[in-house]
Amino acid sequence: VGDRADFDSEVKSICPFCGVGCQVSLKVKDGRVKYVEGINGPANEGRLCVKGRFGFDYIHHPHRLTKPLIRREDAPAKGLNVEPGNWQQFFREAEWDEALDVAAGGWKRLKDQHGGEAVAGFGSAKCTNEEAYLFQKLIRQGFGHNNVDHCTRLCHASSVAALMENVGSGAVTATFNEIENADVAIVIGANPIENHPVAATYFKQFTKRGGKLIVMDPRGVGLRRYASHMLQFKPGADVSMLNAIMHVIVEEGLYDEQYIQAFTENWEAEKAHLKDFPPEKMEAICGIPAETLRDVARTFAQAQAGMIFWGMGVSQHIHGTDNSRCLISLALMTGHVGRPGTGLHPLRGQNNVQGASDAGLIPMFLPDYQDVTKQTVRDAFTAVWGSGDFSDKKGLTVTEILDAVHAGQIRGMYIQGENPAMSDPDVEHARDALAALEHLVVQDIFITETANFADVILPASAFYEKSGTVTNTNRQVQMGRPAVPPPGDAREDWEITVDLANRMGLGWRYDSPAEVFAEMAMNMPSLKNITWDRVANEGAITYPSLSPTDPGQAIVFGDGFPRAEGRAKFTPANVIAPDDLPDADYPMVMITGRQLEHWHTGSMTRRASVLDAVEPEANCSLHPSTLRKLGVEPGEMIRLTTKRGSIEIMARADRAVAPDNVFVPFAYVEAAANVLTNPALDPYGKIPEFKFSAVRVEKSGCL
Ligand code: SF4
Question: Which among 18, 35, 476 is the best mutation to test ligand 1's pocket, defined by most ligand atoms within 8 Å of the CB?
C-alpha cells in the first residue's frame, strides 16, 4: 500500500464477509479503498482475518456491473456462461428507467395472468437490515404472499427451528466473547479458524488461560491443536454421540436439578429417552470410545460455566434440527444458560444473516419472527405499511421455490445478491429451474452464475459503497458506511428496491435507510431503545437494549425464556440416518464447506487479488492414505461422482480428513461442489444435507 499515511479519507464500516462483524477503518485514496485496518469493535477489538484485511479490492474489479442490462431478444440460451468478452451477445445496456420498467413490467404481467404467487424472491444476507426489510415487504405487499427467503435456509435454518421451538428465540443466548468467562466450551460442527477466524482468536485465548475446549467434528479442524478433547466422530452420528454424552450426565446424576425444575419442561421425557443411548452401545456408531464420551460428559456437566458453539456441520443435515435439539438439551440439563460464561451460540455465517432473518426475509415469519399465519400480526404490519394484506399461508423456502418453478407454479423471480446457481444443492436442478423462469430479475455487483439466467440485471452496490445497519452473530447491530460511491450507474440496493416497488404501484416514500430503520423499529420489539442515531454514534448496540442508554444485553434468559411460563423445553432427538448412505458404487462420504480465503460461491473473493493469489485453484482434501490407495499424488486431478453428477478437481493431502471422507469447498465454479450435493431436506428447518453425500472418488484422466 506504499505510504500508509497517504490517504484522502478514512471511513468506519463493517467487514462484509462473516458473521463475526469485525469493525474496520477503510483508508481511501483517489476514490479507491487503499487498505483496511481493524478498529475497536466489540466483536474484534482491532483484529481482522485475511479476508477482512486483504479481501476488499473486488469492489474495484473490472468485472463490476456499471449499467443495467436487458437480455437481447436474439440472445443465445439462458444459462450459458456470460463473460467480460461475450456479454454483448446476451445483453444490451439500458438506462435505469427502461430497465426498471422492464423488470417490474414482467412481474406485473405474470401477476395479472397467473396471480401474485407466480413471482417469488430471494433476498440477501449480504445486504443491510434495511434492504432485507424492504425486500420482504416488496414480496409481501406487492405480490400478496410469503414466498420470500434467503441463504439462512442453507446455513442455520435447522438451528433456528430448534432454538425457536425449545428456547423461544432464534438468536444466540450469549455473545462469543463470553467464552472469556467460561471454564469449558464445546465447539461442534464448526471450523472457526477458517470460517470465523477472529472469533477463533478468543477461543484460543480461552485455552491459554486454562479453559477446556472440547472440539467435535468429523474433520480434525484447526482448533484441535488447542483442545483438551478432540472427538473426530463419524459423519452423521451427531445425535448418537450427543445423546450418549447426555446419557452419562443422567446416569451419573450430574445434571442441575434446581435449574431444570425452575426453568424447563419435558425433562422426564428427555431422561427416559436417553436411557437407550449408553456410551458403550454408541461408541461403534459414532466412532468415539465410551470412556471419552464419559469424560466429556463429566467435564462439561461439572464445570461452573460452559458454552456451546456450533456451525453448519450441525445444521446441514436432514437431522439438523435434531442435532440442535441435543445441544439445547445439553445446555439446559447442565444449567449452562443465562449466566456469565454460559450459553448457546450458533456461529452465524454471512455478515448479516442474523439481521436479514430478524428483518423478515424468511417465508414463515414477518420481522422479529412474528408468525405470518396470525391475523393480528399481519394487521400490525399492514397498518404500518398503509395497505396490502397478504396471505396467511407460510411461504415456500429456497429449495421449495425452485421446485415450484419446475412445477410451473412460479414463473418469475427477484434475486438480490444471492447465487443459487452455485449455492443450491443438486445445482443442475437449480440451474434448470432458473432457465425455466419466464422473467428473472437479478440485482448484483457482478454477472454471477445466477445472472447468466437473468432477463434483467440491475447493477448494485458493494458493502463498502452503502449505508445501513447489519447485525452480527452476537446480536450486535452495527453501522455500515460508504467509503466510495458505486461504480458507473450502479446504485444502492435499497434505492433499487424502492423504485421497483413504486413501479409495482406500492407508493413507497423513503429518502434514506434511516427512515427504513425507523419503520422497522415500529413493529420489531428487538429494536426497542435502538435508533439509527444511537447505532451511528455508539458504534454497536446489542439487542435487547433495556433503555435508551443501555449498550445491550450480552447474555439473555437468566431469568426465564420467551416461552409459555418462561420455561425452555427438552425435545428428545431420535437417530435419523443420513439420506444418501454409502454403498458399493459410492463408497465414501463427501462433506462440503468453506476455506479460509474464499467466501461462499467465490463471486467476491475470487475477484480479490490477494485471496485469489493465495488460493487460486479448485481443490479438495483427502487423507494421504486414501490418496495412496487411489494411486493419486497430491496436486493431481481426481473425479468425484455422486448420484447427482460428477466433477474433476485437484486433490490435496490432509491428515485432518478421515480416511473414508473427502472435503470439497463450494467456492469454485469450474468444479462446483453443489453439482454433487444431496437436496434432501431436514423436515423442520428445510435445510439440505450439504454435509453428507455418498461419493465415488477416482483418479482422473485429466492430469
Ligand atoms: Fe471479516 Fe469475519 Fe474475518 Fe472478521 S473474522 S475480518 S468479519 S471475515
Answer: 18
Residue 151: name the closest of 297, 381, 351 by CA.
351
Residue 639 has pLDDT above 50, yes or no: yes
Is any atom of ligand 1 closer than 6 Å to the C-beta of 48? yes
**Share of residues in the chain with pLDDT > 90 (%):** 96
Work out which ligand 1 atom sits closest to the CA atom of 43: 4
Give the Å distance between the CA of 192 and the centre of ligand 1. Answer: 11
- Helix 267-274 and helix 238-251, axial crossing angle in degrees, nearest 10: 110
The yes-or-no verdict on residue 2 having pLDDT over 90 is no
Mean of the per-residue pLDDT values of the chain: 96
| pLDDT higher than threshold 70 for residue 648 | yes
C-alpha grid cell, residue 554: 450480552
* Cβ within 8 Å of residue 268, ≥6 positions away: none
Give me 187's grid cell. Answer: 465447539
DSSP string, 400-444: HHHHHHHTTS--EEEEES--HHHHSSSHHHHHHHHHH-SEEEEEE
C-alpha of residue 491 to centroid of ligand 1, in Å: 25
Evaluate if residue 389 carries a pLDDT over 90.
no
Q: Is the distance from the beta carbon of residue 49 to the nearest atom of ligand 1 less than 6 Å? A: yes
Q: What whole-number distance in Å separates Cα of residue 161 and Cα of residue 8?
A: 47
Which value, to the nearest 10 degrees, does the dihedral of the CA atoms of residues 203, 205, 206, 211 take?
120
pLDDT digits (tens, 9 = 90+) for 99-145: 999 999 999 999 999 999 999 999 999 999 999 999 999 999 999 99
Whole-angstrom Cα distance, residue 427 to residue 207? 40
Model's pTM, two decimal places? 0.97
In this structure, the number of other CB atoms found within 10 A of the CB of residue 40 comes to 11
Taking 50 as the threshold, does the pLDDT of residue 703 lie above it?
no
Range 491-520 average pLDDT: 97
Note the pLDDT tens digit of each residue in 554-608. 999 999 999 999 999 999 999 999 999 999 999 999 999 999 999 999 999 999 9
56 touches ligand 1 (CB under 6 Å): no
Q: How many CB atoms lie within 10 A of CB 136?
A: 25
Q: Which of 78-87, 189-198, 305-314, 640-649 has the lowest mean pLDDT?
A: 78-87
367 C-alpha to center of ligand 1: Å? 26
Residue 702 scores a pLDDT above 70: no
Taking residues 614-619, report their average pLDDT. Answer: 97
Q: Which atom of ligand 1 is nearest to the CA of 198?
A: 5
**Cα 199 to ligand 1 centroid, rounded to whole Å:** 9
pLDDT at 388: 78
Query: What element of type H or E holds 101?
Result: helix 96-114
Ligand 1 lined by 15 (C-beta under 6 Å) = yes
What the block records as the C-alpha cell of 286 is: 459414532
The response to whether residue 470 sits with its C-beta less than 6 Å from ligand 1 reads no
Nearest CA to ligand 1 atom 4: 22
Nearest to 439, CA basis, from 138, 120, 96, 77: 120
For ligand 1, what atom is nearest to the CA of residue 18?
2
Establish whether residue 36 lines the binding site of ligand 1, counting it when its CB lies within 6 angstroms of any ligand atom.
Answer: no
**CA nearest to 84, candidates 57, 66, 103, 102:** 66
The mean pLDDT value for 417-431 works out to: 95
